[in-house]
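Input (structure):
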């Protein structure tokens, strides 16, 4: 397939022949070459420069082969590829560059359609005749002249359905549209229906085009036939002959307009009754399109955009309800996703052998918890990561109760390496213990592991029971937040920042003397904070006391950098959450594997930089000769540190804490002509890093994924609905001292009762 020569024409006009075909007269022409590698933005920029147009103020169109009636628009890379598909065998192809300001005149002489209408899939319409009442939508009217402001129009409550009946409409005159931008947006819909033989990808596009076209032309339509094979529509005005009939092409899903009567006698499109009208379904479609363009858009933002663009005023609850329905159509049912979990778990294990997956439900089949640890993650942790795991939780955006438990490690380049995760209905001690049991089963290792986690999780007992000889380090961030909550007293908000700074200094302090110095500074500021810190078990968070190896990591929130995208997205079905995590892991492993193939250093880049800094600091140190393997190192202030090269030990404790030689150890090793890299932890080597990412996560095909209606047996039900945030409404309590107004009886004129409870005979 050769690249066609594109003849770009502009400045002329289209004329219509007696048979309905179009021809281009006048203007100039230039020739350019277009290939499969050409991007739409590049093509548009070249044409804009060629004709001195603004890139956003022109439209690019072309004819289909052997069809001089319909023009197709090129507006994206996909449209450009379709253009090459259609004309790949042609030597030359005519392309017409039209300034947008001429689009109205263009529409009057020729049919125009885009390469693909942007629509949101809807459920197939039922063949039954249904009657439904649509909720009225308000239009904010704007007077175009000093005349009285028109009353806002509401949607009619006449019966409507997908198969038969009238569209409930919301009228707003062109003068009521709030800006030129609104009018232009509605004007764009005038070309949704361009003429006889116009083609659509499916029946949904036909319906959507008809709705938008009727808004722009100012009339309502009535469906006479509306099913998966044919659509027959007439103008709802009495006696108006306007008609359209479209049907599906055999053996395809494509629809084509077969019969068309474009004549209106009701005044539609003539300016005498050109009232843009919007049915509830059209407005709902607009909401869905905006959600499709930006999945993270907020309901209030959509309501404001529709108000500005179309003058339609929507309630927040309406937009939110439509957004939920659209999201469910795009992403799938939240409820049905839970019942698909057994299939997904089996598929993950089938495609990724060695992956640990465990799914639990409660007695009533409601979702309880799900554990997933991919083989690639387990292999990477055991092959190249330090025995250090960070445990944390994160709330998931979902209408059902669901929380995320995570276990993550750190690779040799100080990057996050997710090891396992679980989705549970609630965060409690039982679910955390279960998570650790599953993790232990997936990681059958006797090597002691250090866990960094919040001390409030009550994980200490579970860690010691499940992972024997392991260590629990408290997350200092959570510890600091706990201190802020517990510390009371006047002006505490003014000094709490300084106290927290000293707390972090105490945690990082490598020696006992340095730790004592930091907390003494805290005592001079607040004796209460000093006492609190001493009772907070420093052996679990201070470097000078901690017995395990945590490589100077004092917080557990390292996994947030990987899972933060979960909080940025709108609510997803549980199966989508799992699949998206898998995609993120696949991308992470592949990217870092490719990056490490370019490394030439023995250590990872981050550790290599840190070691070079220690080498630079060692230049000012003096080593005292020693016949043994223990040396004294003196700095320029006269302070002496003792280094034992056999034990990989220095009295400053930086070597032990970090896993690579400190400046004192570097000075000794260089003095006795030893290789520094032989005294670095193996976990920092480039070789270990490549082992960490040597296994990949395999894709999970969904070709044989059962449709919701195919799952006759309910195996998993959703967890309970998430409670609405915020305090419940309370009854007003009158302040003490406020006397209630006494009751007066209108019958006997007495006090303390009313006529209902009055005992006086009437």
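Output (sequence):
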């Amino acid at each position: 397939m050769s690249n066609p020569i594109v003849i770009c024409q502009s400045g002329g006009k289209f004329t219509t022949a007696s048979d309905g075909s179009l021809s281009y007269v006048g203007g100039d022409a230039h020739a350019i070459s277009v290939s499969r590698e050409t991007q739409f933005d590049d093509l548009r920029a070249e044409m804009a420069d060629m004709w001195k147009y603004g890139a956003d103020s022109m439209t690019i169109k072309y004819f289909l082969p052997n069809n001089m009636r319909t023009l197709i628009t090129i507006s994206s890379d996909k449209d450009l590829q379709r253009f090459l598909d259609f004309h790949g065998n042609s030597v030359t192809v005519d392309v017409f560059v039209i300034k947008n300001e001429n689009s109205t005149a263009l529409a009057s002489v020729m049919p125009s359609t885009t390469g693909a209408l942007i629509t949101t899939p809807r459920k197939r319409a039922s063949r039954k005749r249904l009657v439904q009442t649509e909720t009225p939508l308000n239009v904010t009217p704007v007077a175009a002249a000093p005349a009285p402001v028109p009353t806002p129009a509401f949607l009619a409550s006449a019966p409507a359905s997908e198969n038969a009946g009238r569209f409930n409409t919301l009228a707003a005159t062109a003068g009521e549209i709030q800006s030129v931008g609104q009018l232009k947006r509605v004007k764009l819909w005038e070309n949704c229906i361009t003429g006889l033989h116009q083609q659509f990808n499916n029946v949904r596009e036909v319906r959507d085009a008809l709705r938008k076209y009727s808004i722009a032309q100012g009339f309502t339509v009535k469906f006479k036939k509306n099913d998966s094979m044919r659509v027959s529509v007439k103008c709802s005005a009495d006696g108006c002959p306007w008609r359209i009939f479209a049907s599906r092409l055999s053996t395809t899903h494509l629809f084509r307009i077969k019969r068309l009567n474009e004549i209106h006698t009701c005044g539609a499109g003539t300016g005498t009754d050109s009232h843009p009208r919007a049915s509830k379904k059209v407005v709902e479609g607009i909401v869905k399109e905006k959600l499709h363009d930006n999945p993270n858009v907020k309901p209030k933002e959509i309501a404001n955009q529709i108000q500005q663009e179309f003058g339609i005023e929507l309630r927040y609850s309406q937009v939110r309800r439509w957004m939920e329905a659209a999201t469910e159509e795009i992403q799938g049912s939240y409820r049905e996703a839970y019942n698909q979990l057994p299939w997904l778990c089996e598929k993950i294990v089938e495609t990724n052998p060695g992956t640990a997956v465990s799914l639990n439900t409660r007695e009533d089949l409601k979702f309880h918890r799900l554990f997933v640890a991919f083989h690639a993650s387990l292999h990477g942790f055991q092959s190249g990561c330090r025995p250090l795991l960070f445990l944390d939780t994160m709330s998931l955006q979902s209408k059902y109760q669901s929380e995320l438990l995570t276990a993550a490690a750190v690779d040799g380049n100080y990057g996050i390496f997710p090891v396992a995760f679980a989705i549970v209905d609630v965060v409690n001690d039982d679910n955390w213990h279960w998570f650790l049991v599953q993790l232990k089963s997936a990681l059958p290792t006797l090597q002691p592991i250090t866990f960094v986690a919040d001390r409030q999780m009550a994980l200490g007992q579970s860690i010691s029971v499940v992972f024997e000889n392991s260590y629990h380090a408290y997350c200092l961030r959570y510890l600091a937040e706990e201190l802020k909550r517990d510390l009371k007293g006047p002006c505490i908000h003014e000094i709490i920042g300084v106290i927290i700074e000293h707390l972090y200094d105490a945690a990082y302090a490598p020696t006992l003397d340095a730790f004592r110095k930091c907390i003494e500074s805290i005592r001079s500021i607040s004796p209460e904070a000093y006492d609190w810190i001493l009772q907070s078990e420093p052996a679990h968070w201070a470097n000078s006391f901690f017995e395990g190896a945590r490589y100077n990591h004092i917080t557990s929130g390292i996994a947030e950098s990987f899972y933060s995208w979960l909080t940025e997205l709108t609510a997803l079905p549980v199966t989508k959450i799992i699949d998206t995590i898998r995609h993120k892991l696949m991308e992470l492993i592949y990217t870092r594997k490719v990056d490490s193939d370019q490394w030439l250093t023995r250590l990872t880049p981050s550790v290599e930089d840190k070691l070079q800094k220690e080498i630079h600091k060692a230049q000012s140190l003096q080593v005292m000769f020693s016949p043994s393997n223990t040396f004294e190192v003196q700095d320029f202030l006269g302070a002496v540190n003792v280094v034992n090269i056999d034990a990989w030990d220095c009295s400053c404790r930086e070597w032990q804490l970090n896993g690579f030689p400190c400046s004192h150890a570097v000075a000794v090793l260089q003095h006795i002509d030893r290789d520094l890299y032989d005294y670095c932890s193996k976990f920092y080597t480039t070789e270990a890093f490549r082992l960490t990412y040597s296994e990949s996560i395999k894709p999970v095909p969904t070709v044989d994924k059962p449709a919701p209606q195919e799952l006759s047996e309910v195996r998993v039900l959703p967890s309970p609905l998430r409670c609405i945030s915020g305090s419940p409404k309370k009854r007003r309590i009158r302040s003490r001292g406020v006397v209630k107004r006494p009751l007066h009886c209108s019958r006997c004129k007495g006090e303390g009762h009313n006529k209902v409870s009055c005992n006086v005979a009437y």
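Notes: Confidence is low (pLDDT under 50) at residues 110-181, 271-276, 726-739. DSSP finds 24 helices and 27 strands in the chain.
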